[in-house]
Write a structure and sequence with these properties.
This is Integrase. Helices cover 59% and strands 4% of the residues. The protein has 3 domains: 77 residues, no CATH class; 106 residues, no CATH class; 166 residues, hpI Integrase, Chain A (Orthogonal Bundle). β1 and β2 form a beta hairpin. It is mainly alpha-helical and 387 residues long.
Length: 387
């Protein structure tokens, strides 16, 4: 330990002593010894320990952003050596800086203000409310990439933004159907700043209703398997049950922490989008066990993730979690679609939108698919006296 965290091999430098306390205080010292000997993250930490004063987020951001870098950063934050920050927001800002730096000047002069004053500013607003997820970061990066693709396409057409016409946009939307929706933010931003002619629009693709569902009996059997099969990994049982009971997407499940769990008079509640759900006793016990046996690293807000990732202070990657669920025969998409349909049998779409934090129009599309008619509910809401 001293050899790793000291420049002279004699004593641990003062800035790194909290990290030494974390490592020596681990529940299983054998695992720590294995990590010290074999992990690329430990080797990186040893190199960084040669200059403890350079241990800061800015220095780490200049390194290749590999798994070892992410792990070391999480370890330093957990030990209190580095201040916590919103890593999803940091991923976005650092990625934008690297991406813009590689663009030709004519494109960088457009992408930089669009990214900084529209994409990143909105991301900071969501981050301040604790709502900037890993999925949101990926979506924002996708919007910037679509904009770069659009500008490159304009170049092939020998067009500038000021020369853009509706027929050009229509051609773009037909040739790039997967990017058309992601190009809308940049078009709106450009129009608002009079960089292109007014009244240009890119129509959004027609919303695709889900096509994968489970039979009711299959859905029920999988939920019972989550509750009762001890051969399944604990995190798989918890995540798959949350999908099947509450139609929660994996992107939201991985962001759940112990702060979302409340206990009161014999009941356990899971709070989602500021609304508490009463958990079935079996699921409550599974969640208690998951919190008890999972790594005890805290995130930036001082809370422990229900499904912690490999790196300290980070949650599971939702894409990796989806693969794990499929591996164990509990795929998430069809199960969530079925759970959403079941919920809309009893709840109006406006209530579902509020509970799950989805867009009201999305909930309305689901209600249409479910065959629900909520006109009477809406009329009753409008007629109800305001309090």
């Amino acid at each position: 330990m001293t050899d790793l965290l000291s420049a002279d091999g004699a004593s641990v430098a003062q800035p790194l002593q909290p990290l030494a306390a974390v490592l020596t205080g681990a529940d299983n010292p054998y695992h720590v010894l294995q990590w010290l000997r074999r992990s690329p993250a430990a080797h990186l930490l040893g190199r960084l320990a040669l200059d403890p004063e350079a241990l800061n987020h800015k220095s780490l951001d200049t390194l290749p952003q590999r798994a070892a870098t992410t792990y070391v950063r999480g370890l330093l934050v957990t030990a209190g050596i580095l201040p916590p920050r919103d890593e999803n927001l940091a991923l976005l800002t650092n990625w934008v800086a690297r991406t813009v730096a590689e663009l030709p000047a004519r494109h960088a002069n457009l992408i930089r203000p669009f990214a900084e004053w529209h994409i990143i500013r909105d991301a900071r607003r969501r981050s301040s409310r604790g709502r900037y997820t890993y999925a949101a970061h990926k979506g924002d990066c996708g919007n910037v990439l679509a904009t770069i693709n659009f500008l490159n396409w304009l170049g092939t057409q020998h067009l500038s933004l000021s020369q853009l016409q509706q027929r050009h946009l229509d051609t773009w939307a037909i040739e790039r159907p997967t990017l058309r929706s992601r190009s809308i933010p940049f078009l709106r931003w450009s129009t608002a700043r009079r960089l292109c002619p007014p009244d240009l629009v890119i129509e959004r693709s027609a919303a695709q209703l889900p096509g994968h569902f489970q039979a009711e009996e299959e859905h029920r059997k999988e939920l019972l398997r989550c509750f009762n099969d001890p051969e399944l990994p604990l995190e798989v049982r918890v995540a798959a049950a949350l999908v099947r009971l509450y139609a929660l997407p994996l992107t939201r499940i991985v962001e759940l922490t112990d702060d979302h769990i409340r206990r009161d008079q014999g009941h356990t509640y899971l709070t989602v989008n500021q609304h508490p759900f009463v958990l079935p006793p079996k699921l409550a016990r599974l969640i208690d066990d998951q919190l008890q046996y999972s790594p005890r690293h805290s995130n930036a807000a001082g809370c422990r993730y229900l499904l912690p990732g490999h790196s300290p202070g980070r949650p599971r990657n939702p894409l990796g979690l989806a693969d794990t669920l499929r591996h164990h025969g509990l795929p998430a998409r069809a199960a969530r679609n079925t759970a959403m349909m079941d919920a809309l049998v009893d709840l109006p779409p406006m209530v579902m939108a509020d509970l799950l934090g989805i867009h009201p129009k999305t909930a309305e599309r689901w209600a249409t698919l479910a065959g629900g008619n909520w006109s009477e509910y809406l009329a009753a809401r409008r007629a109800a006296p305001q309090r």
